[in-house]
Design brief:
The chain has ten helices and two strands. It is mostly helical and about 230 residues long. The protein has one domain. It has a two-stranded antiparallel sheet with strand order 1-2.
Length: about 230
């Protein structure tokens, strides 16, 4: 696909995403968090979509770095309240852009599947955990001055596991179930430790690193060889 067409498709997608988030924010009261999560999830999907559309790596990395620069300016100037409109001090959007840039820099060429897994977990699992955690009543606790809930934590754990196993199955990378569960537990803990929104950096990078480690280590796969791959259950 020509680069111009790819950029047009991605631009239309991003425009629709921002329009949807803005419409949600103006349609219902107290919907700022939902609007932010729409942006959070939608922007995370940009990375796998860009790779699937065969966008050149240098363009993807340049765009991610430019986005980081704009987010840094917005953090100071507050041009787009939709991004920073939260009731706590956080650098989550800065860490978000940093993680996307890091995933592209490290994993785009050598291990794109790991890159996609990390991006999807950050976008979908972390995004849904925030929404469901606040939208569903369940037991809560305080951890590092952050309020966490059973519903949100369970959502993070289960959705991460499902994403890892789905990506593993669709790409032919046999990820042992026990190892996928271990990764899910680790990144769920990292999501708990989300001071200043740093989980937007630690969760995707750790997911990608561990996925890549499993996919490229025969010894590790052998260690977990007594587990059953997802595709044998389908």
């Amino acid at each position: 696909m020509p680069v111009a067409v790819t950029l047009t498709v991605l631009g239309l997608y991003l425009g629709c995403l921002i329009t949807l988030a803005g419409w949600i924010g103006s349609k219902w009261e107290h919907s700022h968090e939902l609007s932010r999560k729409v942006i959070h999830i939608g922007c995370g999907l940009l990375l796998p979509i860009s790779y699937w559309l065969q966008l050149p790596r240098w363009i993807a990395l340049t765009a991610a770095l430019l986005a980081m620069g704009l987010v840094l300016l917005n953090y100071q100037r507050k041009w787009l309240g939709l991004i920073e409109d939260v009731d706590r001090k956080t650098y989550g959007t800065i860490f978000y852009c940093t993680s996307i840039s890091t995933l592209i820099l490290i994993f785009w060429n050598p291990d794109p599947v790991a890159m996609i897994a990390g991006s999807l977990v950050m976008a979908i699992s972390d995004g849904l955990a925030g929404l469901i955690g606040k939208g569903v009543q369940s037991p809560t606790w305080r951890f590092n001055d952050q309020t966490k809930s059973l519903a949100g934590t369970t959502t993070m754990l289960l959705s991460t596991f499902l994403i890892l196993m789905t990506v593993s199955h669709l790409t032919g990378n046999v990820l042992p179930i026990r190892f996928a569960l271990l990764v899910s537990l680790i990144v769920t803990f990292l999501e708990q430790w989300s001071v200043y929104g740093i989980d937007n950096l630690t969760v995707p990078i750790m997911t990608a690193l561990m996925f890549s480690l499993a996919a490229n280590s025969d010894q590790l796969l052998a260690f977990f060889s007594n587990t059953v791959p997802l595709k044998t259950l389908l």
